[in-house]
Structure formats: C-alpha cells, structure tokens
Amino acid sequence: MTMHFSVLASGSTGNAFFVETEDQSFLVDAGLSGKALEALFQDIGRDMSKLSGILVTHEHSDHIKGLGVVARKHKLPIYANAKTWSAMERSIGEISVEQKFTFEMEQVKTFGSLNIESFGVSHDAAEPMFYVFHHEDKKLVVITDTGYVSDRMKGIISNADAYVFESNHDVSMLRMGKYPWSIKRRILSDVGHVCNEDAALAMSEVAGDKTKRIYLAHLSLDNNMKDLARMSVEQTLKTKGIIVGEQFSLYDTDPKKPTELVTL
Questions:
Q1: Which Pfam families match (predicted)?
Q2: 236 near 20, Cβ under 8 Å?
Q3: Residue-wise DSSP of 138-201
Q4: How far is 63 from 78, CA to CA, in rounded Å?
Q5: What integer pLDDT is reported at residue 34 of this predicted model?
Q6: How far is CA 228 from CA 167, 220, 233, 236, 240, in A?
Q7: Does position 122 have pLDDT exceeding 90, yes or no?
Q8: How do residues 130-164 score in pLDDT, each as one tens digit?
C-alpha cells in the first residue's frame, strides 16, 4: 500500500499538485489552464477524469485558474473552506451543488485509505490553508504561500516523509528588482511569501528521521532561480548542521513540467 505524488507545476505562474493511493487520487489546486492541466496529467500517465476530487488552498489565480473548467468537464468534487468558496465563486464560474464540498481549516477528512489534514497559513487571501496527507505510516506535506512558518504550523507538519515547501524568493533580487515597492512590501510581509533562507530555517526545524525528500516550490519567476534557491537553502541548512544528501535530498520543481511520479 503506497502513496504516489508529483508536483505538476509550481511557481508564480501556476500551481498544481497530484497525490494518489491505491484507492484515491486528488489534485491540489488547478492554477493553470484546463488544456495545460490535461497535458500535465498525460505527462505522468494519469487520467484527470478519475480523480477523487480537487482540494483548493486559496483563491489567488495561480491556484484556481483552471479549476472551474476541469471540474465541470470531468464532474469532479471541489473541496475548499467557506471563506475561500465565497472569495473564488465569481472567478471559477458556476459549479453544481453536487460538486461543492466544504473542507474547513484544522480538519481531518478521511477518503478511503487516505486521511487529509488541513492547516492554516499566513497569506493575504480569505482563509488560506494547505494540506498534510497521511497514508498508512507515510506523511506528505504541501506548504507554500505563507509569509512565515509559525510554531503551530511546524507542529502540524513535523517529521514528514516528504515536503513540497515554499522557497519563493531571494531577498536581494526582490529588493533590487522591477516590482513596485507596494508589491515588494507585500511579498516580504508576514502575509506574503517565504524567502529561501527562511524556508531553510523552517525545514531545519521540521525535518525528522523520516524525512527523505524536500521539493523547493513556488519559486518566483522574477526574484529567484532554481540554482540560487538550492544553494541558499543548502548553505542555510549547513549552518544548522544539516548536510543535504545525508539526511534528505532537495528537488527542484518547475512552472511547466511535472516532477517524476514518486512513491513514498
């Protein structure tokens, strides 16, 4: 009995994550066009019409762009908390009552062999939350779009087998970049995004004996680079006595290409 997952797409241009067990499969967010999402599913050899449902983290467009289209096409259930439903309904179009489900923050829902736990993050959305997937003795965490990682979050996500972890920006690139100061201030705030170094500090506190894989996710297109993110995270972890490759490995994600479908 195993759990598989792939980061289908991750970045400021669109986000989607796939997880499955022997009897369940879910898409977390649908932040690309319906056509792009269908292509990503083909790339990993999976059929979107067979999904058990779609889990929504929050209403920003890079997380819900294709949500309405694919949900209507494949008649898929959508799970989101009440405030997120209210915030995104205009953007995703009409969804039948039979497809609308509420999944509130700090809940655990059981779908066959898969237990899914929701937890709140600090981001400038209506009520943003992410998910922990529990299957047998395996634990998988998805956490992006948060201005910081609180002690409460750390307690919930600690010692997972794998993480999809935000490493959004390099602070110097952001400060010197082309964005207006109002946007820079938002990104740097407690309701913005986690930078490379802060992500690594949080990783150093939550990674445990079980942790084997950490995926660097939601990289800014303008204010980060894969090599820079990896280098910054590795260097910061080293200051905490963690040598990447010994306890766990780091993996890149991409805004257009899925990661390998991995078995936990």
A1: Lactamase_B_2
A2: no
A3: EEEEEE-S-S---HHHHHHHTT-SEEEEE--B-HHHHHHSSS-HHHHHHHHSTTS--BHHHHHH
A4: 13
A5: 97
A6: 10, 12, 8, 12, 19
A7: yes
A8: 999 999 999 999 999 999 999 999 999 999 999 99
